[in-house]
Amino acid sequence: MDFHQLWLRLRQQGLASRLDDYSYPIIAAEQGRFQMPGEDHNQIGSNFGYAYQFDSSLYAKFLRSYCEANGVVRTEGKVTKASQNPESGHVERLTLEDGQQTEASLFVDCSVFRGILIEQALNAVYDDWSHWLPCNRAVAVPCEARGKLLPYTRATARKAGWQWRIPLQHRTGNGHVYWNEYISDDEATHQLMSTLEGPALAEPKQLYFKTGRRNKFWSRNVVSIGLSGGFLEPLESTSIHLIQEGITALIELFPGAMIDDNDVDEYNARMGLNFERVRDFLLLHYAATQRDDSEMWRYFRDMTLPDSLQEKIAAWNTRGYVLKYEFGVFLPPSWIAVMLGQNLVPASYDPRADKYPLDQLNSQLGSIKQNTINAVEATPDQIDFLQRYGAASQSAPLVASPSAPN
Amino acid sequence: MQRSEFKIVICGGGLAGLMTALALHGALSSAYQIVLIDEGEDADDDLSYGSVTLPTAYDFLRGLGLDEPVLFSRSNTSFSFGSHYVDWPGTDTDWIQCHHQILPVIGGVPLNHHLTRNQRSLAPLLISGVAARHGKFAHPPNDASNPLSRAEYGYQFSAHQWTRLLAEKVQTSGVSRSASSIETVNTDNGEVISLDLTSGETITADLFIDCTGPARKLLSAVGHSFTTIRRISLTHSLKSASQLGPACRRVQASAQGWSAHTFLQDSVHTLMIQKDDKAVDATPYALGALDVAWHNNTVAIGAAASAHDPLTPGPMVMLQRDIERLLDLIPVARTFDMEQREFNRRFQNDVNHTDMFANAFYLNEAPTSSFWSEAASAAQSPDLNRKIVQFESRGILTKFDLEPFNDEDWTVLHHGLGRRVARYDLQVEATARLDIDQQLDGMARAIEQLVGRMPPHHVYVSNMKRYFEKQKYA
């Protein structure tokens, strides 16, 4: 019996507080506390996962030095030409702006939205998902960190998009993702800059994108990984996960002397499924909202959802049922969090929950709640944990220069 | 919330009906009234469930009140480490399709790739298979350092005896049971309205469960047709045995089909499968499935919904999944569109995945008889082709959502069927070939030694029953 079904029963009896109160990582996050999951699986505080908030520029620099130290040969330059075999269509050679040429049997296209090889050379069709996920621009800016270091990202809905706040040790990352149909770039930037918690540390950076995916992530001898293969907006920070999935699948299906069409098909099938399941989860954030105070939110309220998502929402609303799948990054707890978080409260619950005596159930859930409080109280603040763990940043918090924008 | 009364009527007195009645009664509150129309057992129908289960049956049966003390003391159930396939077309050697926990990963690379590189066989590294081949059995311990902890087991069973045990459980469970037969199914606009019984009673319900086997009395009354994929015939016989045989079923192929010998405590049950026009005294049986298993207020469970090749534990897996799916989706109100859609979605996936595993047996080069050619023709599917191509190309196991047969089942099957992997993951070369050989030799030796110390299956079961007797479990 899924825990949330028991909770739904108690809630309908007026005996349960919010579901979050029974979740150690949520309460710990709200209080700015963190520690590694415990190893005793009978104890609260053992059964959660965690990820990272990081500075992507610093991380990229780190990866570059790590790669080079491990034998990766790096050539800097702009690709001006991709020469293809006239018969097979395979890319054979890249020519850089300075005239250098590079030949290879396999090319991995990580050229972000440009898709230098997958699109410009091979014309792999981009399946546009803008009608489902129409936000197409973002403006990003770091600012001075303020307050307690929180171990979670905050996403705040705006009238034509949403705004992120990612607290790092040395600064806070901020961004406003929006649909330019309903807000100008200037206004989006103004909204972002006027709601920063501290002075900005740089000029705001404008980003443009179109959500969707390649119909073929792998075409001929080119594998597109990262944004060249597809882009789903950063609402759940899934881009890096999809890069990981692409790398893992490529390693597993790495070609031998020849590229086997079966491997290409397998890769494309796996990545297609990954993208589709993430798409539905992202769209849920917009579709499940009750907000209707602006054109964009009314668009989502009136849109026709993909059947796969429509069915998930119907199943949840009917009885708190989460459609069962094995593959896909978002597991039932994630779906439950977003649906309940958006006030989608099921009309009923699994009737098997009625088999438990109500008093006993109430007492057991009460114990879990109290044990969660106790476990969180014994958890250090994230900053203390990082220092103890040896992961505290060596750089001092960044401070805005007098000429930085406000 | 106070639930309003909801009446569920289950039709059918075989394995499916009894298991469904017990499962629903055990899971639901008294707001759900469960009524079983027990038409009596049709022994021929229940034969189609085969005679072996997967390891997942352990928890499922316990949930119905059939734990091992009951199963072994009150029926002729025995253990099953798997099935022993002999003379299978396209194979050079026999193999044991054994149940096993996750196979080892060495140096971060799945075992399969090391076997390809070092040109070694999988069989000596599977303790459940080695033990079954030697006629040995013991319960897998929890101690992870013991090689036997990696074994898993299901059961060899007699459908007739399990039906008797289940019927007794139903009698004492509080399920309302009517020993009567359906005379007429009254329908209106695609819904079952009521059932006229031979007892003279007319019975109504909010939800009807069709467990009437291939007769499909309810679903056929509301107009749902069964799509036949292939027709076979089943012939069975029972021969008493003075001593329990090995903890694995023996399946032997011939030009006309195959036969399975199931080793029960007191007997050997033989099931012969041929083309449906071969044997005069055989029961014809159509393999296939309904287009939808839940239609309006009627749900088909078990052989009423889909019929699977008893070559693998697939038929019992499917019955178990049908019931678990129903439990997940028992209606919360008198409209159940959502439940119907989701049940049918999962049903279709389960049918496809269950059949895919059995179909994989038929794609080897086989005799030219009509049985084998029809089976091979029906076995083709793009998903199965994807699995075979990826395995033979590079030892990769292509997976789909929530398959009933796991990676280990597929790995053992591919190896057993003689599928050779063309190339291995180059990451294996991070470990010296000789080191891997030594490690695998050590694993095989440890398994061989441990199996040598295990008791024969019949001795283990006798001792276990004596223990149950002492503990007064029986």
What's the average pLDDT of chain B?
A: 95
The count of β-strands of chain B is 21
Instruction: Provide the spatial order of strands within the biggest beta sheet of chain B.
Output: 5-4-15-16-17-14-18-21
Strand order of the biggest β-sheet of chain A:
7-8-9-6-10
Structural class of chain A: alpha+beta
Considering residues with a beta carbon less than 8 A from a beta carbon on another chain, report the largest interface and each chain's count.
Answer: A-B, 32 and 33 residues
Report Rg of chain B. 23 Å
Please report the distance between the alpha carbons of the first and last residues of chain A: 52 Å
**Number of DSSP E strands of chain A:** 14
Helical amount of chain B: 25-40%
Q: Secondary-structure element sequence of chain A?
A: HHHEEEEEEEEEHEEEEEHHHHHHH
Please give the alpha-carbon distance between the first and last residues of chain B. Answer: 41 Å
Low-confidence stretches of chain A: none
Please identify the structural class of chain B as seen in this structure: alpha+beta
Work out the radius of gyration of chain A: 24 Å
Report the total helices of chain B: 15
The average pLDDT value of chain A, as a whole number, equals 94
Share in β-strands of chain B: 15-25%
Q: What oligomeric state best describes the polypeptide chains here?
A: heterodimer
Query: Helicity level of chain A, as a percent range?
Result: 25-40%
What does this entry show, briefly?
Chain A has 406 residues and is of the alpha+beta class.
Task: Furnish the topology, listing elements before pairings.
The complex is a heterodimer of chains A (406) and B (474).
Chain A: H1 3-12, H2 24-30, H3 56-69, E1 79-84, E2 91-96, E3 101-103, E4 107-109, E5 126-128, E6 137-143, E7 154-158, E8 161-167, E9 172-178, H4 185-193, E10 205-208, E11 212-214, E12 218-219, E13 222-224, E14 230-231, H5 239-252, H6 261-287, H7 295-302, H8 307-319, H9 332-341, H10 358-377, H11 382-389
Helix pairs in contact in A: 2-10, 5-6
Chain B: E1 6-11, H1 15-27, E2 32-37, H2 43-47, H3 57-63, H4 68-74, E3 78-80, E4 82-86, E5 95-98, E6 105-106, E7 109-110, H5 111-118, H6 127-133, E8 154-156, H7 159-173, E9 176-178, E10 182-188, E11 191-197, E12 202-203, E13 207-210, H8 217-221, E14 226-240, E15 248-254, E16 257-263, E17 267-275, E18 283-290, E19 294-295, E20 298-300, E21 306-307, H9 314-328, H10 337-359, H11 370-379, H12 382-394, H13 407-416, H14 433-453, H15 457-471
Parallel strand pairs in B: 1-2, 1-13, 2-9, 4-15, 13-20
Antiparallel strand pairs in B: 3-8, 4-5, 6-7, 10-11, 11-12, 14-17, 14-18, 15-16, 16-17, 18-21, 19-20
Helix pairs in contact in B: 1-7, 9-10, 10-11
